Amino acid sequence: MNVACPVCNSTLSRLYPVHDLLLGGLGVWDFGRCAACGHGALTPAPSGAELAAFYGSLYTPENLASMRAIDRSGFERLLRRRRARAVVRALGDRPPTRIVDVGAGLGGWAADLHARWPSAEVIGVELSEVAANDAAARPGVTIVKRPFDACGIEPGSAQLVSMNHYLEHDPDPAAAVARAADLLAPGGVLVVELPWIGGFARSLFGRWYWGHLPPQHLHLPSKESLSRLLRGAGLEPGPATTTGYPFQAVVALVLAIRFTAGTRSRYANNWLVRGPAVVGGLLLLPVALAFDVLVAPFLGLAGWGDVLLQVAHKPGAPR
Ligand SMILES: [Zn+2]
After folding, report:
1. What residue spans define the domains of the chain?
2. Any bridge partners for residue 164, and if so which?
3. 7 Cα–ligand 1 center, Å
4. What is the whole-number distance in angstroms between the Cα of residue 34 and the centre of ligand 1?
5. 71 alpha carbon to ligand 1 midpoint, in Å?
6. DSSP label of 215
7. Alpha-helical regions (H) of the chain
8. Fold of 47-242
9. HSE-up of 236 (CA within 13 Å, CB side)?
């Protein structure tokens, strides 16, 4: 059975099943893609109870150390530098007085924004208790520990709203973008960063693209569906750039073997299948590594990376 695309209302056709690759063994979901606007989504969407259980087991005090390691990683810092450049270009010579970061996580990006504009009020919206408590300890960052649709921030008051790796987690991205647009003052800037369905990793590796990450990634927008979401909220999409995650091919190879013939497959105890699969994987490993090191970085620079950074403006003259 096909269902309606959540962005353009055309048909979302089922492509393939996607596994929980992060915590392992939690389940399998169907991933669908819209033939008209290219938007990707889990179909049917996981229930609220399923999501609450998943996030409850992900954002725990025990996982805080690994969350901090990701927050401080070199790749995360690279994304933040590129994002900062895009934001500065979009704002021009107008320093913001209020900034809202939706889905602030551990607050690393919010802290960067405070360091750049020390006189601006930087508000991070973060629902996870564990992440929000960590982020609230950052100097110059105010954390609102509520869902975005109940954040209570005054409409029209922010010059910059950012949604980094947030929108793909929200069950209703159209409503979230509309809310972000509502918070912006005229001339304000929205910056959205998310895993891009059109990037090389999803395009080449399909269901073994680790960025599927069900059930937390509910939506994987295309450039067109993201533009539709932004325009639908009255915003004007500006320039978009991409970056490629490192070691995508190696990760896809490991996942493909693990889930088809390895420990997560029905052949977990059958060495007649697992043995040749492991040998095949080892033979392909140098090829995957060569792709990741020699080819992938250039695909990101050429606009085919799988992290999409999109800037949009709210019409009107800045006050
Ligand atoms: Zn669509």
Report:
1. 47-242, 248-296
2. 193
3. 5
4. 5
5. 33
6. T
7. 48-58, 64-72, 74-91, 108-116, 129-136, 173-183, 200-205, 223-232, 248-260, 271-290, 296-299
8. Rossmann fold (3.40.50)
9. 9
Partner residues linked to 182 by β-bridges: none
Per-residue pLDDT tens over the stretch 158-206: 999 999 999 999 999 999 999 999 999 999 999 999 999 999 999 999 9
Which 3 state secondary structure label does DSSP give 228? helix
The CA dihedral of 121, 122, 124, 125, to the nearest 10 degrees, is 40
Does pLDDT of 318 surpass 90? Answer: no
Which residues fall inside 5 Å of ion ligand 1, going by CB? 5, 7-8, 10, 34, 36-37, 39
Q: Cα–Cα distances in Å, from 253 out to 160, 201, 205, 240, 292?
A: 39, 12, 9, 29, 12
Residue 25 is predicted with a pLDDT of 61
Mean pLDDT taken over the chain: 94
**Measured distance CA(283)–CA(285) in Å, rounded:** 6
Structure tokens at 88: 């500065």
Residues 121/97, Cβ–Cβ less than 8 Å? yes
